[in-house]
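Chain A, query sequence.
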Amino acid sequence: MHSLVGRDCPYHELMSHPFELRFDNAIGTYDALWNFSGNLACDPKVGNVNNWILTFRDGLRGMLARIVAVDQNYSKLHEYQLQSPPDGNPNEWVLHCESHSAVIFFAMDSALECFVFAMNVIGFLRSPQDFRDITDPGALRKIGPKDILGGGRSPTPRYEAVFPRTVAYWKANETLLSAIFEYHDVSKHRAAVVTGGDSEGLRVKDHPKQQGAGMSSAVHTVESMAHSFRQFIDEVLVIAVEEATAAFGYAAIKRTPIK
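Chain A, predicted structure.
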């Protein structure tokens, strides 16, 4: 396998990542948003018109389920890598690694889609003119990450009207998010993206959408992207909870777990 890793980017530095992901805030923020939606639905000033709470909670549950898929398949990937004999068939080895990696890329991309879908519901409740209409099936089909990052299908929602910090954090991490979208797009519709590696990590194509590209990325690995995604999710969910609750006059209090 070809690689761009050289003296300025040592292999062990590029590939060295823990063999497990720790989503420290995912469950807590999920619970907070779930309970918050219940409080809003019971609030006479908001209510549950058009059963919006079901739409929101379906998106929220979908997001967490995809995060679980990332976590589980990351663990399964490394369990397979560590158990595989070094003298085994390399083609069979990379086949199984590609299988787990494809699920990881799908789940990362889908978790982000579900996040946007759920937050659009809260935004619509607070400022209907700035978000996609949750009662319009056509509008729901247009919801996607570009609604936050920009460049989405017109009319583009104004997330900054309710979630300015969320928008800022997404845009600050646009390079990572764009890479996740690209690798999932290729692994879903076109071809394999893993180019090789060992028990320490998996290399991926440098330019996955470029025909005939065989070089490995000197920036991304499956592990580096999964860990960056974990950090992004852990931080953006806290921001989202704080902004969503504040938009309706509620206070979000983060409790430190008792050890």
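Confidence is low (pLDDT under 50) at residues 1-15. The chain has nine helices and three strands.
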